[in-house]
Amino acid sequence: MGTTTPPRTLAEALRARGDESLAGLLRARPDLLNPVPNDITQLATRAGTRASVVRALEHLDRFALQTAEALAVAPDPAPYDTLLSLLTGDGLDDGEQRDDAGAAVTAALPGALATLREQALVWGEDDRLRLVRTARELLAPSPQHPSPTGLGPTVAEATAGMSPGRLQEILTAAGLPATHDPVSAVAALAALFTDRTRMAELLDTAPVEALSVLDRLVWGPPYGEVTPNPTPPVKWLRDRGLLLPVSTRTVVLPREAALHLRAGRAHRVPEPVPPVVAAVAERDPQAVDRAAAGQAFTALSTVEELLKLWNGGGPAILRAGGLSVRELKRTATALEVSEPIAAFWVELAYAAGLLASDGESDERYAPTPAYDEWLDLSAPDRWTHLATAWLPATRVPGLVGGQDAKGRALSALGPELDRSAAPEVRRRVLALFAELAPGTAPDPETLLQRLRWERPLRGSSPTGEGTDLRSRLALWTLNEAELLGITGRGALSSQARALLEEGEETAAAFLAPLLPEPLDHVLLQADLTAVAPGPLERPLAETLSVLADVESKGGATVYRFTPGSVRRALDAGQAATDLHAFLAAHSRTPVPQPLSYLIDDVARRHGHLRIGAASAYVRCDDEAVLNEILADRRSTGLRLRRLAPTVLASQADPGSLLEALREMGYAPAAESAEGDVLITRAGARRTPPRTPPTPVPEGPPAPDATLLGAAVRAIRAGDTAATVIRKDPTEGTSAPRTSSGSLPRTTSAETLATVQAAAMTGSAVWIGYVNAEGAASQRVIAPVRVEGGFVTAYDHTADEVRTFALHRITGVAELAEEGKG
User: Could you tell me the pTM of the whole model?
Assistant: First the structure.
């Protein structure tokens, strides 16, 4: 095809593109690469399939989509000026030239058209623009699928099948000369509607009520219902063809008439320029960073508290998967947050790989070994780990509590929370934040308007949860970013900006000086409390969390010592002397006497009773204590009986017996089969090694430059093999081959002779080849060596040297021109 010959098909238009342009198409529409097309014709066919076109349309911004919609209602093919007129109007409605909006459309149209061309949705030169057929079918108007422009069918489409007599009646009523040719009659009526002067004269004679009917239909939908005896205004419009019948009860305003009433515009309001994201407040960037850092510290504390809560084995997993409503409420109460926020923290820990199922028969959630590794990191690194897990996550905590398409409740950690659009929306929201000056908080409403402009067709969701999922994802992103410390006081923090632009190390360096330094001390008070005036060093915090219960949190954390908390420390293997030494070493105030008495008193009674497995037994050297237990009414449910003066047996399991006796005021200790006291390690339960959940991708991943280059070379080589000029072995003539042609067929002797000759002369040949899997293909190869039943050749299709088995070559043909391919 010569460079001046206009393309006749999309395949020819793609074939005329350069390699960079083809790579741009594959980059914009990566679904076309799976698998790599054999040639240009197959690429064009795949680019025109319904699924691929729908995916491409969903990635268009509003003005590019409006351009495609205008082409869908324009003549096929359409000149550039016709397209421009559909977007700007004809400028004759008020007698003035195009206004500023028209100038903006004029300036933006080349870019929108270039986008449509790059994505192979539009092809052809400016004087013959063509929208691919599938896109035209998706965007063109029909009674079942109204056009997004609100325009109806053309006069020719609406009058198809209408009787010649009825056409004559319409022409006569409209004041047009009669004709017996239906084609001429339709053309005459369409010419009337597109003639500004004559159409204005016709409408000047219309009743006012008829004009009101047109006003209701002009911007769509263009269809209306009529009765068997229509009102005079409707009858006047129907008699003159301004309303054409679709069925016995439905009429439509033809496209040409509607465009006249719209002054030639396909859209009421073209939107060539994206909405500006307005600022709602300008804040001190340092104040924003401090607020975000404070929230980041809270995020770390909350995740750590959540996983400590589930250290000994978390809640059971529902049969259908996920966390029950009751367990989510319990978790929210423990974290002192609302249930939606608790769902966010649970899902964040899961996305970061810190939380998973333990895989036991009685399946429960528990921390993973990665949680212990996470705890060993510095606070800034722990935060970047959470933030980088949040950014690409496709699980959406905001859906928790809602219902799926089948009316089933969506639970936290459940299987139905993945939404593949979430990462793209999340990153786009943060990118819009980053475009503003530091410290600027954007207006959420204008931000949503910008997102809707960028992806107008991506709002709906097949899961049935609403018509604007992207907007909901954006609002959830704003809330989650504030909770996580990505933003502070509604503006993007410097550490988050560094994370997005430079990486985790830089972000951690920005955050480190803003976080408080861990303390190595507490303040003990006489009321059996300890005050931590800031975050504590990890060993101190872990030991203190076992020895005391958290009473309140905030800028300072208050711990309370109780008999139960002291017994918990003793169960963990600590002795009373160890506890006294620990408190003395880490308190800036003297150890109060009541606290020392509490520790000594609990330690004196700790382990006096021993619990083992009978189902369970109680062992004590003091018979009086066992007599007291047997006499206590509260022990009736334990079904205790004396086995020996110092031993009681129970039908309850050891754990239940242990808890029951503690509730009765005793301080029993569990023992092993050897009679040793069992030490309960706090936080010892972990799942087997688990990997974080894999995000559900939205379509195929974006190809890298290497893959794009290899794909373009393969398509070019395959196209050469499919369209190469070869010699017909039977007639000696030259004939072009296409991808739809059959594989060449030659005998084994002819195949061997031809490839041997090609190896001697260094020429290329065209072969058909069937691989070991039975897949047939056609290739252009340059044989280098033929021996042992194999041909070593440079494969132009694969752009590499390969070895082919001679018995798998179905046939061979010489090229008409040596070296072609």
Answer: 0.76
